[in-house]
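Technical annex, item 7. During the second reporting period the consortium partners agreed on a shared format for inverse folding records so that results from different sites could be compared directly. Each record opens with the tokenized structure and is followed by the designed sequence. A conforming record, contributed by the partner at site C, is shown below for reference.
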């Protein structure tokens, strides 16, 4: 029986693990609690052709338009055609999508020409995460280790195949060996001052891939969401575009609907245009979302989670102006993989937001990311089942003590790392953010290198916070270099001096 080491417990890692458990033994490691994932925060839904008026061609076309035709068309077709069965699989796992008389209710989001988004209220991701986790927990072939931080991939001597990963658990450093290693570590929004991503999204998989010599693609295409709740200068969570869809206004501190002067569709202009305009207007004034003119009962009914979350911070969506900011939301690029999710290093695969299949091109069509993670982590199984010949024959996941020691941080070093992360986030937000200038990106790269050289050198031992700081710096460098390599605007990559 083959063995699988899966790094990450979001939709990509969990769905892969459930598939792989049919072939062999799986260990999932995840750096915090299992539900601490971007998946758990997804509000909108999951896209697939599920309605008789819709067609594969229409979903493909919408995806290509959103991605400015920079997409890999084979990957797009592959995802779109396999999306309906992947979503039906989720229903088999127990996800209770909104339905009426046994028919799925489908909604429509920006960029979709048809109704094709299956959803559960405004908490689709949470429902998916919990259903997949429940299946994982009752599966005898899968173990899940929480609070286990993957540090490094273990490659064999010629660096051409992967044997597993080094990880930290309970301040102990260990090497975990398996036939196949899976990177499903999610995105990297934490590289920016404002992000909708949870704290775990620090680009660890990208940085591990970088240290292992993997190739990257499209990292300049970071999608910024126009509206995250801004609590005293920090984005706390995403406020779905559907709130504007239901009639909410964007206002500055004079109470002006500034979007009226900027675009004929005002608040309903395309996501990027709204994000850029909020960003520019927010240099002059705080920006608010206002839905107080709508029926409070309907607002509460339509947005129960957002209403509750805001209540926790002392805001009433039905009565108050809600301070908002744009925020880094999704990384369209990542570790370059082919249609079989192969990374170029034997026995190492990548799925979900950490990977770049080419599906999203220069910008992601809403609700295409959950389904991408599902489709690609489903498809690989047939390939692995036929691939027994490549196995290293690690019939049981092996755990060996690593000779590195755990590094306990003193307060001084901890504070230094916090300050470095803060500097980096501000830098990326200002210079490699929503609106970019070539000269500013060059300055950012210099500052990133400066920060890198300030990382404590010669420290013996490994530590999670130290690694996360290094990973954020590597990710920032990769994004900046990709952005500088594209001096013209395309999709989500806006060069102001172009
Ligand atoms: C607020 C929000 C709303 C969204 N809404 C939608 C939507 O409506 N529809 C849609 O299609 N997409 C949506 N997205 C995007 C989508 O949720 C993500 O792209 C997707 O969930 C990513 O899944 P993943 O499995 O790749 O990563 P994640 O779900 O982020 O999981 C990553 C996992 O890797 C683990 N990990 C990371 N580093 C390490 C390490 N060093 N060691 C061990 N474990 C590690 C993490 O702990 C976590 O378990 C949204 C994203 C956000 C943030």
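Designed sequence (site C submission):
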């Amino acid at each position: 029986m083959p063995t699988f080491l899966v790094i990450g417990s979001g939709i990509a890692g969990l769905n892969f693990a459930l598939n792989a458990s049919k072939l062999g033994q799986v260990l999932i490691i995840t750096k915090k609690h299992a539900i601490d994932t971007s998946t758990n925060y997804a509000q909108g839904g999951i896209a697939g052709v599920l309605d008789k008026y819709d067609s594969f061609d229409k979903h493909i076309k919408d995806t290509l338009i959103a991605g400015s035709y920079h997409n890999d068309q084979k990957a797009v077709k592959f995802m779109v055609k396999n999306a309906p069965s992947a979503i039906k699989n989720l229903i088999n796992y127990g996800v209770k999508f909104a339905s009426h008389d046994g028919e799925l209710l489908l909604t429509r989001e920006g960029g979709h020409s048809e109704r094709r988004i299956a959803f559960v209220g405004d908490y689709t991701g949470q429902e998916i995460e919990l259903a997949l986790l429940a299946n994982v927990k009752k599966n005898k072939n899968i173990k899940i280790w929480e609070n286990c931080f993957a540090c490094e991939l273990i490659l064999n001597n010629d660096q051409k195949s992967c044997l597993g990963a080094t990880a930290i658990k309970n301040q102990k450093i260990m090497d975990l060996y398996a036939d196949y290693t899976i990177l499903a570590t999610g995105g990297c929004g934490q590289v920016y001052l404002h992000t909708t991503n949870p704290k775990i999204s620090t680009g660890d998989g990208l940085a591990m891939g970088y240290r292992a010599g993997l190739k990257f693609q499209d990292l300049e295409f970071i999608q910024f969401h126009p509206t995250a709740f801004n609590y005293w200068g920090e984005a706390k969570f995403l406020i779905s575009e559907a709130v504007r869809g239901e009639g909410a206004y964007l206002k500055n501190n004079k109470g002006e609907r500034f979007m009226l002067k900027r675009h004929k569709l005002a608040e309903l202009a395309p996501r990027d245009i709204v994000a850029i305009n909020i960003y520019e207007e927010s240099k002059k004034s705080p920006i608010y979302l206002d839905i107080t003119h709508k029926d409070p009962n309907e607002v509460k009914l339509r947005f129960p989670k957002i209403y509750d979350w805001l209540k926790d911070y002392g805001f009433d969506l039905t009565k108050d102006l809600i301070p908002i900011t744009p925020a880094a939301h999704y990384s369209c690029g990542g570790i370059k993989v082919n249609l079989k999710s192969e990374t170029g290093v034997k026995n190492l695969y990548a799925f979900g937001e950490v990977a770049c299949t080419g599906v999203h091109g220069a910008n992601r069509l809403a609700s295409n990311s959950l389904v991408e993670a599902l489709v690609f982590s489903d498809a690989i199984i047939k390939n692995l089942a036929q691939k027994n010949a490549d196995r290293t024959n690690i019939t049981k996941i092996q755990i060996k003590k690593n000779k590195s020691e755990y590094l306990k941080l003193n307060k001084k070093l901890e504070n230094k790392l916090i300050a470095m992360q803060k500097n980096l986030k501000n830098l990326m937000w200002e210079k490699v953010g929503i609106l970019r200038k070539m000269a500013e990106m060059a300055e950012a790269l210099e500052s990133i290198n400066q920060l890198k050289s300030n990382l404590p050198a010669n420290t013996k031992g490994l530590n999670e916070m130290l690694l996360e700081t290094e990973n954020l710096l590597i990710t920032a460098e990769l994004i900046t270099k990709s952005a500088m390599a594209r001096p013209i605007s395309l999709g989500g990559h806006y060069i102001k001096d172009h």
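The mean pLDDT is 94. The longest helix spans residues 411-431. All partners now use this format for quarterly exchanges.
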